[in-house]
Amino acid sequence: MIGQIITLLGLEVRLEFRQRASLAGVLLFAIGTVYLFSLAFGSVEPRLWNALFWIILLFGAVNGLGRSFSRELTYRYSYYQQLTSPLSLYVAKVLFNTLFLLLIGLLVWGVLSLLFGNPVKDIGLFSLTLFMASLGLSLILTFLALLAGRVNNGPGIVAILAFPVVIPLLLTVVKLGAVALRLIQQTSTNKDLLLLFGVDLLAIGLALLLVPSLWKEA
Amino acid sequence: MQNLSPALFLQAAPDFIRSIGKIYVVVAVIVIVVLGLFAYLYFVDRRLTKLEDQIQDDE
Amino acid sequence: MKGLWWKVLALLLMLYVVLAGLLIPLKSGIQSVEPMQLTAGQQQTIRVEGYNTHFESGEEIRAWLRLGSPRVEGKEGRDTAILSNSVKVIGVQDLSISFQVPAYLPTSDGAARASLIIDNPKDGAFVLPEAIILKQSEALAGPPSPQGWSSQIENLSASSGITFPFRGLLAETIRNQYFHVSLWFSLMILMLAAAVYAARFLISGRSEFDRRSEALTKVGLAFGMLGLFTGMVWANFTWGKPWSGDVKQNMTAIALLIYLAYFVLRASVASDQQASRIGAAYNIFAFAMLIPLLYIIPRMRASLHPGAGGNPGFGGEDLDSTMRMVFYPGIIGFTLVGLWLAQLSWRTARLKHKIQERLLG
Known about the structure:
The complex is a heterotrimer of chains A (218), B (59) and C (361).
Chain A (H helix, E strand, L loop, with lengths): L1 H18 L1 H21 L4 H20 L11 H7 L2 H31 L6 H26 L5 H27 L8 H28 L2
Helix pairs in contact in A: 1-5, 2-3, 2-5, 3-5, 3-6, 3-7, 5-6, 6-7, 6-8, 7-8
Chain B lengths: L5 H6 L7 H40 L1
Chain C lengths: L4 H19 L5 E6 L2 E3 L3 E9 L10 E6 L13 E3 L2 E4 L4 E7 L10 E10 L3 E12 L44 H25 L2 H32 L8 H21 L4 H29 L20 H40 L1
Parallel strand pairs in C: 2-9
Antiparallel strand pairs in C: 1-3, 3-7, 4-5, 4-8, 6-7, 8-9
Helix pairs in contact in C: 1-6, 2-3, 2-5, 2-6, 3-4, 3-5, 3-6, 4-5
């Protein structure tokens, strides 16, 4: 199982490097947005910086992860089904998407710092929040992408399904981000991190239960 | 300005819906619930009518 | 008709909840106090308007001003309070109460909030928390002193008869507990049933389970809309506006959006079988999201709803045993009504399925 996951993860990474389509697309979107903001606003205050960062990450995630299974669910589907278990493919996708989002997040962080300066005071907390947010978004969106994989207008459906689910997650990370930027003082940081962790655990549990039965059907 | 002291709040000029200890708020809530349940029944009824028409067309 | 008994039970429970919920009176309370500020060291008179009270002259009516939080039932110890020196009955709802406020407050801030406690034999004792602000007079400036503040609040009369609690600005709308709150609890039960049927469908593949799951979700969503609207009506007259961006309001709106997406998802799949399978998986996912949205996140944030900020949601003073006797039947009643509506839906869906099969075959 673990060997399978590592192999599949390697395959994902190599495919991504060969095609570079989704990473480049999302990066172009992210950098374009930041650049537009710099043209429109000139300078960005820390509160806006925080909101901008997470919103770009969210939209990038919905754009990039919505098509996670577009390859597998078409021509290669039956071949994959014989070779691997659906769960290991799913776990590999989640891991790849988490790394993908982390990379996007770090790059957006860099670009934002370059253009508007870096207001992050607590780098440890901000990085931890970024990691938890990437993991959470990746878990939820990969699952929804699998759901919407066989639906007409799949990526559009992923957006409809994802937004209500992702809003509470986004609210929590925006709050944690604000703490990391020292915009608000607050004592319940641990509780918020715990909430993120809980959402991640919930998504993992659901995936373990539901992915096999979603996959079974041709 | 908002003073949340209960005594002040109750001294605000009473209109119809706030009168008699705001009992009409409860009445409004019950009316909404009952109307909602009837709306649901209406839609189920309409779907059944459609099915009945289908059966009659068939026969 | 088979399986009629629980529908009769639903009717009886709803009848009981509406009747008991509307007819049982509220406990007596204090509606307004005038003036709201008293100066220390003087003999002063306040006008009190009661709610659901039965003041009569000749009865022994006593009143106290008590500093600090309202008296906790059964707590022993000294009260920091003064007893009224005369209570005059003006009408069944109106009193005129005189206090001799001691020259020095026992607190050092120069001002203190006092709750007003009134006790009469017919209605029992009742409290208006933080009814009056006591001020140290400028002419009599001096160190704080506990002298004169040692009246014991004792020998309180018990109220007779069955009543619901009187809670300040909620007034009669406390009865919405049986309609608005019960609706949300029954929604939770219906959505749980929908998720269980969805799981059974995924395990067995029987289309009947999927029809039931979809019908229950439909009723649950309808209940959610009703819960949202009734909540907005209630909020308008207690919190001041229908939508105050309260965390629980926001999270329930999001939860309803998640369930709306369930129907969008089903509608956008071409084949019925796939719609069932994908819909069932999403239904379980949506229920798993519902619990944190309705019951975990709102408790972690400041909210106007009870149960926020780590407080217990129900129980304590806000839901006494009389209210439970109506609230719990209300939950069961609404759940049964919801099941009945859902049953109508899934039977209709089954009929449609059979007709289509016959047309095709």
